[in-house]
Amino acid sequence: MNKNKIKKIANSFNGDLAKDLKNPKFKKTFNEEMLKLQIAEQIIALRKKRRLTQKDLAKKINTTQAVVSRIENAQVYPSTIVLQRICNKFNVNAKFEFCEL
After folding, report:
1. Alpha carbon of 53 to those of 33, 49, 56, 98: distances in Å?
2. pTM for this structure?
3. Where do the domains of the chain lie, and which CATH numbers do they carry?
4. How confident is the model at residue 3 (pLDDT cuts 50, 70, 90)?
């Protein structure tokens, strides 16, 4: 696929998304899913940076590989307890902020 075709598809997608986001119900669901994806992305990046498997991470934070998998696949929100365990084990802080949509 050439760059122009990719750009055209991306522009079409962005236009459709902008229209869909005008629907309050869609926007709410979209924002909820984006939050799960952002959290998952951060956990995956930290885990990979530390060269750990999901099973290794699960063991360190006293949970199962299945739980880590569901979090990383944005199927569930991690509990604040799980997030705190990750922070404690890896000596990092989690940053949370509200921003305008």
Report:
1. 24, 11, 5, 31
2. 0.80
3. 3-90 (1.10.260.40)
4. confident
